[in-house]
Amino acid sequence: MKQPQITQTAQLLQQIVGIHHMEPGKLCVLRQGPTGTYYNLQWREEGKALSRSVPADQVEVLAQHTANYQRFQSLVEQYAQLIIERTRTERAAGFKKKTSAPKSSWPKSRKSNS
Asked: Which among 21, 64, 88, 98 is least buried, having the fewest CB atoms inside 10 angstroms?
């Protein structure tokens, strides 16, 4: 079971390393205007809701970057779950009940009080 799990973690890390551009948030349509659609990017940072206008020529790229961020979050969650499972399995294996050594059949000798 260890080998497939190690392979899975290596594959997840490889996929994470392959993400070169990302942007948190959600790309939203504000409205339709005479020159086209107006977009903004909405995200949270340090507990505050923030937004930024997105030029029309950057919409496709930003859509890909936000999708990359969502994929990154998903991969990190999967990686964390595998590590948690492995940690718990290893800890449980270490806490198996230890059997006590068999007691000797030889009678105990008492020390003299002299």
From this structure: 98
For residue 3, the surrounding DSSP H or E stretch is helix 2-17
Question: Which residues are within 8 A (CB) of 31 and not within 5 positions of it... i.e. 6 or more apart?
Answer: 37, 38
Running DSSP on this structure, what letter comes out for residue 25? S
| Tokens (6 digits) for 68 | 């990359």
- Residue range 90-114, pLDDT digits in tens: 888 886 655 666 666 676 666 666 6
How do residues 42-82 score in pLDDT, each as one tens digit?
Answer: 999 999 999 999 999 999 999 999 999 999 999 999 999 99
Of 63, 69, 24, 30, nearest to 43 (Cα)? 24
- d(C-alpha 105, C-alpha 103), whole Å: 6
Q: What residue type is assigned to position 108 of the chain?
A: K
The secondary structure element, H or E, covering residue 16 is: helix 2-17
